[in-house]
């Protein structure tokens, strides 16, 4: 393995790499995220300094060992603690329900990641709008394979996502080939054209960051929350407008099989300021409502 720049870091408490970095993975075939057989997490990112590859692994004794390659290596290593939850404050969370308390007890290493990169989380979130996860993951995979670039260093098949200009120049037939309809493609193109303004959201207060993202046509509360959960580690960025989350939260906390955003927000009101973290623990609690009715059917834009 060709050597890159290295850094070691010791978190101030338990850290579960899988739970902390897992939300950054867009499906099992994500070209920008891989988990090696030894448990190391590999990520390819386009940083302000350029493309970079990061490998993160537990080195024993509570030490986290990281290695990075490419023009973005120093940027990635400088922000390693934030990526692994150093800016997070889990002590601010108090469990208000038995299921949440048990999940909190069983997963002390959960931290909320902060990548500091908006477009990296925004574009796959846009791809996930109103489609199945499999459709969105396929689109992300195909677009990175065709329009991204090989990740620096010994990263194997990892790909770095395109830069803003490249996203904006993807022709319509390439979006169509990836299964992305005109509405989502148009939203991505508009976001790419104002990428510098959107990246400023990482330095803003939560409310201002939400407004900045939603100023782009096609980005609503769902997409903004999914993005800021990852880019800024916002512990309160609860996802509204989701097809499944209200039912999961409602069933976990009340036993009722059907819920909506209003009911979910009411149930999560005791977690004000920590609603996203509470939802993570509810999902980890594993109390999922039984399925009824047909699954959501994937679309076929080729037939449109």
TrEMBL record:
Write out the GO biological process terms. base-excision repair, AP site formation; DNA alkylation repair
Its cellular-component GO annotations read: cytoplasm; protein-DNA complex
Annotated transmembrane regions? none
State the superkingdom.
Answer: Bacteria
InterPro entries reported in the protein's UniProt record? Alkylbase_DNA_Glycosylase/TA (IPR051912), DNA_glycosylase (IPR011257)
User: Which Gene Ontology terms cover its molecular function?
Assistant: alkylated DNA binding; DNA-3-methyladenine glycosylase activity; DNA-7-methylguanine glycosylase activity
Species of origin: Actinacidiphila oryziradicis
- Protein name, entry field: DNA-3-methyladenine glycosylase 2 family protein
Instruction: Give coiled-coil spans as residue ranges.
Output: none
Which key words are in the record? Answer: DNA damage, DNA repair
């Amino acid at each position: 393995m060709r050597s890159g720049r290295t850094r070691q870091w010791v978190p101030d408490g338990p850290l579960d790499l899988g739970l902390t970095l897992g939300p950054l993975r867009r499906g099992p075939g994500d070209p920008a995220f891989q988990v090696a057989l030894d448990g190391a997490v590999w990520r390819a990112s386009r940083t302000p300094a350029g493309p970079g590859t990061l490998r993160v692994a537990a080195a024993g004794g509570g030490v986290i060992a990281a290695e990075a390659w490419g023009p973005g290596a120093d940027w990635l290593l400088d922000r390693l603690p934030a990526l692994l939850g150093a800016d997070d404050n889990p002590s601010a969370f108090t469990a208000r329900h038995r299921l949440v308390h048990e999940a909190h007890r069983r997963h002390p290493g959960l931290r909320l990641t902060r990548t500091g990169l908006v477009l990296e989380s925004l574009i796959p979130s846009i791809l996930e709008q109103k489609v199945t996860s499999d459709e969105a993951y396929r689109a992300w995979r195909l677009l990175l394979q065709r329009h991204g670039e090989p990740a620096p260093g010994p990263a194997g098949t990892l790909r770095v996502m395109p830069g803003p200009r490249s996203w904006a120049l993807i022709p319509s037939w390439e979006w169509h080939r990836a299964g992305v309809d005109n509405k989502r493609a148009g939203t991505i193109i508009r976001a790419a054209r104002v990428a510098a303004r959107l990246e400023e959201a990482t330095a803003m207060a939560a409310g201002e960051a939400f407004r900045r993202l939603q100023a782009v046509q096609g980005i609503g509360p769902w997409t903004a929350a999914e993005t800021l959960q990852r880019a800024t580690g916002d512990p309160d960025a609860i996802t509204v407008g989701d097809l499944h989350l209200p039912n999961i939260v409602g069933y976990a906390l009340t036993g009722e099989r059907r819920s909506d955003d209003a009911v979910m927000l009411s149930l999560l009101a005791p977690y004000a300021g920590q609603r996203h973290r509470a939802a993570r623990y509810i999902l980890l609690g594993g109390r999922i409502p039984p399925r009824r009715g047909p699954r959501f059917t994937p679309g076929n834009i080729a037939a449109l």
